[in-house]
Design goal:
- The protein is an alpha+beta fold.
- The chain folds into two domains: about 120 residues, Type I PLP-dependent aspartate aminotransferase-like (Major domain) (Aspartate Aminotransferase, domain 2, 3-Layer(aba) Sandwich), CATH 3.40.640; about 110 residues, Aspartate Aminotransferase, domain 1 (Alpha-Beta Complex).
- It has nine helices and ten strands.
- A four-stranded mixed beta sheet has the order 3-4-5-6.
């Protein structure tokens, strides 16, 4: 904006915290240069229809950047299938080091100007990787991906095993989400933000933003921490989400995240702990 660029925001429905993609065409015109969209919300877990968003943006002549940081440990990423122009991620979300990752279509990475040191290559990917790389971090990224592939069995290529692994992960995590949502509905005063319809579990990750009547988010997080259950409270960098929900000045929400290494018993422990705070 400090360079005169107009930034338009796509709204989401506060009822289920999903993007209102039906209104996206109203924000796009011949001057639109880039659509930046999250694959999944780190705040409330909602998964975006990035393929549909990309179709609409490309129709208007815009490029598409997908932020897949939160989605990556919960679902399969296929940049060809969603037809994004750029995709960013970070391996720390799927058990690797804090290493940033950028995918881009070759012709775009080749055509864009990159600020680089003189000895660096003028062609992708070297022009975007300034200086000596953190080889230990790259080894960690490779190890993290290889670990995920082990969840898909031993047969096939690494990509084939990753496809199987993420399918298994999705199915298992949906069972955790089902357990949590059904249990949460039985805890007096507990409110879950985002998709709560158990028929729509494929539209969310097992990441839940909650509030508890009579307790601030910080108080809930502290009490859970005393019980050995570690969560996050506040806005967790999703400032715009908390503003839209009217909660930014009220301490935000409590975020409870599950993953494939969690168990149904652990979900029950979280629910019991929340109920015990009443």
């Amino acid at each position: 904006e400090d360079r005169g660029v107009t930034v338009r925001w796509l709204d989401f429905d506060p009822a289920d915290c999903t993007l209102r993609l039906e209104t996206l065409p109203e924000l796009l015109n011949e001057k639109t240069r880039l659509l930046s969209i999250t694959y999944a919300s780190n705040a409330v877990g909602s998964i975006s229809d990035v393929r549909r968003a990309a179709e609409l943006a490309h129709k208007a002549g815009a490029l598409v950047l997908v932020d897949s940081v939160h989605f990556a440990p919960h679902g399969l990423i296929d940049v060809q299938a969603i037809d994004c122009d750029f995709l960013i991620s970070s391996a720390y979300k799927y058990f690797g080091p804090h290493t940033g990752i950028l995918y881009g279509k070759y012709e775009l990475l080749d055509g864009l100007m990159a600020y680089k040191v003189r000895p660096a290559s003028s062609k992708p990917a070297g022009k975007w990787e300034t200086g000596t790389q953190s080889f230990e971090s790259l080894a960690g990224v490779t190890a993290a991906v290889n670990y995920l592939a082990t969840l898909g069995g031993e047969a096939g290529s690494r990509r084939e095993r990753l496809v199987q692994a993420m399918a298994r992960t999705k199915t298992y995590e949906m069972s955790l989400s089902l357990r949590f949502l059904r249990g949460a509905a039985q805890v007096p005063g507990l409110h879950v933000y985002g998709i709560t319809d158990v028929e729509r579990l494929d539209e969310r990750t097992p990441t839940f933003a909650v509030s508890l009547d009579g307790f601030s988010p910080e108080a809930v997080a502290e009490r859970l921490g005393e019980l050995g259950i570690f969560v996050w409270h506040g806005h967790y960098y999703a400032v715009a989400v908390m503003e839209r929900l009217g909660l930014l000045d009220k301490g935000g929400l409590v975020r409870i995240g599950f993953n494939h290494y969690n168990t149904v018993d652990e979900v029950d422990q979280v629910l019991a702990a929340l109920a015990s705070l009443r």
